[in-house]
Predict the structure.
Amino acid sequence: LTKFEIVSLFGSIEQIVSINKDFLDQLEKIANKKTDMSIGELFQQYSSNAGAYADYCSNQTTVRDRLSEYCADYPKFDQFTRKCLHNPVCRNQDMETFLVMPHERICTYPRYIKDLLDNIEQNVNTDEVESEISVSGDEKRLTVQKTVDDVAWYQVAYGGN
């Protein structure tokens, strides 16, 4: 595959992987009480990275066609994708499935946030938790609701669920 063809399939995937690894590391620190950061602050901090998903998702409308085309044009790439399919690490999932995963992930964040709010224990002060989730900055009011709205916009703009 040419460099252009690789980018047309994988886009900003390395950036998305990096963002998600960092996000997971921070989430684990919160869960293990190794930081004073709240989940709301974490979502707020990482909401500015949603643009990486927009770039990636904008490529997804034609990824199936390009994948088929590249497999037809490049027999070694076709062999590689078939070999990956049967690799136990890939759990019998094809390349297209992996290419769609970041798109699907961004679409699940609003549900995760809603579930977080819906499943707060009864003895927790809901206002206190919601204020943690809706932290506002000095000049720029950036809340999880804005993040949810942004994600919803990406879903509409890029065909999410």
Remarks:
- The chain has nine helices and no strands.
